[in-house]
Amino acid sequence: MKNVVQQDFDSEAFGVPFYRVVAWAKPDLENELSVLIGRRPIVVDAKVGADDIERNRFLQRLGFRNVCPQVALRHSLTKCEKPEHRVAISEGLKITDELIRRHAQNFRTDRFAMDALLDRAGRDRLYTQWIVNSLSGRMPVASYGGNFCSFRQVDDCLSIDLLSVLNQRQGVGRSLVLAIIEYAAERKLKELRVVTECANRAAWQLYLGCGFRLDEFLNCYHFVAA
C-alpha cells in the first residue's frame, strides 16, 4: 500500500493493527481503505485540513469519525525572549520510571484520549513508550527539573515533539519553549513548528504567548473497528 501505512509503534501500543493515511492519491487511496476497513480489529487514522471540504467528506463517507480538531502553529524566530528559568538542552534526558508514568498521565486532551473507542490502557502504553523514545537520545530535549520538551530538526526547521510540565503555573512551560526558540534562532534556522489539540487550551495559549502564529486547523479522523 502506498497511501495507507501500518504504524508499528501504535499497533504495538494498542494491540491491534493500526494504519495511517500518509498520501491522498485517488483512486488508489479509496481502494486501499475499502480493503482495510473491512478487517476486524483495525484502527486507521488520518489528518486533513479543516478547510479541505472534499477530503473531509471523503473520510466521513467511508465511516471515519472526526475525533478532535488540532491547531498548527509556527514561530518565525525573528524575535526571541530570554527564558525565566535556567533550561538545559541535551541529547536525551534520564528520568525515573515514576516520572515517566506521571508524564504519560499528563496528556489528557490528546486525540487518543478523546476517542472513547480506543483502549485507555493502550493509550497509556503509547505515551509511556513515546516519552521513553523521545528522551532516549534520538533528539534534543529542553529540561528544567523533571519537566521537558523534546524537539527535532527537519531540514532548516525545528518541530516540537512532546511538551510535558508537571510543575504547572510556575512559568516552566514558557521557559522550555523560549529556550528552544533561542536554540533555533542561534542556529539560524527558518522556523519552529508545533501541533496541538484545540482542546488543550493551556498549550496553544502558551505557544501564542511565546510568539507563535496560527498556521492552520486540522481535523483528526479515526476509523476504529473492534
Topology:
Elements: E1 4-6, H1 8-14, E2 18-21, H2 28-36, E3 42-49, H3 53-61, E4 65-75, E5 88-91, H4 97-105, H5 111-114, H6 120-134, E6 140-144, E7 147-154, E8 157-164, H7 172-186, E9 191-197, H8 201-209, E10 213-225
Parallel strand pairs: 2-3, 8-9
Antiparallel strand pairs: 1-2, 3-10, 4-9, 4-10, 5-6, 6-7, 7-8
Number of strands: 10
Question: Class of the largest domain, according to the CATH hierarchy?
Answer: Alpha Beta
Chain-averaged pLDDT: 96
* CATH level-four homologous superfamily name of the largest domain: Gcn5-related N-acetyltransferase (GNAT)
What radius of gyration results from the CA coordinates? 18 Å
The CATH architecture classification of the largest domain is 3-Layer(aba) Sandwich
* Terminus-to-terminus distance: 22 Å
Secondary-structure element series: EHEHEHEEHHHEEEHEHE
**Structural class label:** alpha+beta
Walkthrough of the structure:
The chain is of the alpha+beta class. The protein folds into two domains: 4-68, no CATH class; 75-217, 3-Layer(aba) Sandwich (Aminopeptidase), CATH 3.40.630.30. It is built from eight helices and ten strands. It has helices spanning 8-14, 28-36, 53-61, 97-105, 111-114, 120-134, 172-186, 201-209, and strands at residues 4-6, 18-21, 42-49, 65-75, 88-91, 140-144, 147-154, 157-164, 191-197, 213-225. The protein has a ten-stranded mixed β-sheet with strand order 1-2-3-10-4-9-8-7-6-5. A hairpin with a 2-residue loop joins strand 6 (140-144) and strand 7. The longest helix has 15 residues, at 120-134. The protein is globular. The two termini are 22 Å apart.
